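In this section we turn from sequence analysis to structure. A common task in structural bioinformatics is to predict how a protein folds when a small molecule is present, because the ligand can shape the pocket around it. The inputs are simple: the amino acid sequence and a SMILES string for the ligand, here fe (ii) ion. Study the lines below before reading on.
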Amino acid sequence: MRLVNIAYVDEGSILARPVRSANGRVLLGEGVTLNQNFLTKLKQLGYDMLFIRDDRFKDVEINNAVSEKTKEIAYNAICTITTAVDNDSNTNIDADSVRFAVLNIMEDLMYSFDILSNLTDIMGYDEYTFHHSVNTTVLALILAMGKGYTQSKLLELGMGVLMHDIGKTNVPKEILHNKGKLNEKEFEEIKKHSAYGFEFIRKNRDFSIHSAHVAFQHHEKWMGGGYPRGLKGTEIHEFGRIAAVADVYDALISKRPYRDAMEPYQAYEFILAQSGHQFDPEIVRLFTKYVAVYPTGTGVELSNGLRGNVIGQNASLPNRPIVRAIFKENDPLEQHIDFDLSRQLNIMITKIENR
Ligand SMILES: [Fe+2]
């Protein structure tokens, strides 16, 4: 299979992975042949990348960090809790469902931890906030595992990250859903979500106080200047420093109705550039160790002029993956060749093109 931008998906292509709605329901199953109707509908829903079957990439497995089932459990937990808190801000957050969701993610990660994580998510516009919280939790836990956290510490962190934006339920909806540029007053209102979240989690005795600090501190910056308190360096709890990197990376690679998603390598560059500024350099170092610059499946153009797709990762050199390039595409003499860019240092990736 390979990852293809929907603009380049031909009618008659076969889905290699199901397309799911925000709540995990399968919209189109694996093996479905795509017709024009399906493609138009998917575009309207905001899906812009699809995993497509391709015999030339038959042997390529794309293992996601966590399973769809696990994501669905976490998604449903946060969805139910947010709706409950939205309706009544005195509702106690159901800590058991949060704990269960995080334990599932931890268990999945235990098996996929040794590979560079593939965080590619196929999604439309729907319910960004919930997806974002799940993905941020997955990435935060990957970084924390890299740091050697114990199980109980991972659980504390994960429970906080899954709930990190719960305070947004207290921000007026018209501000939260404003797609234009926020004025200063509106931005001040948004900023309050950190403290609101802290209060929600803190008053619940089933959460550790450290989990509450994730909500409180995920917008603080390493060099200062973040909010709500403008803390600096290690004044910020390590959980907050981890959540900050995970939160920003996932936000950048997510597509929003008002802006396109950044390519993972661009978001990666952003995180790197902010090492020691917005982010703790040690957390950024872990990030570069465990997150793939060019996720498996990505379409690339190489400096030798060939086009192909990433088929594997090199754990020691995350920016030099293995690429399968196609010679004489759509020609009877077509053939492919694999370039391991960790060995062939004279070849570079020059462009990302999911076609
Ligand atoms: Fe936030």
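The two ends are 13 Å apart (CA to CA). As an exercise, try to locate the residues that line the fe (ii) ion site and compare them with your own expectations.
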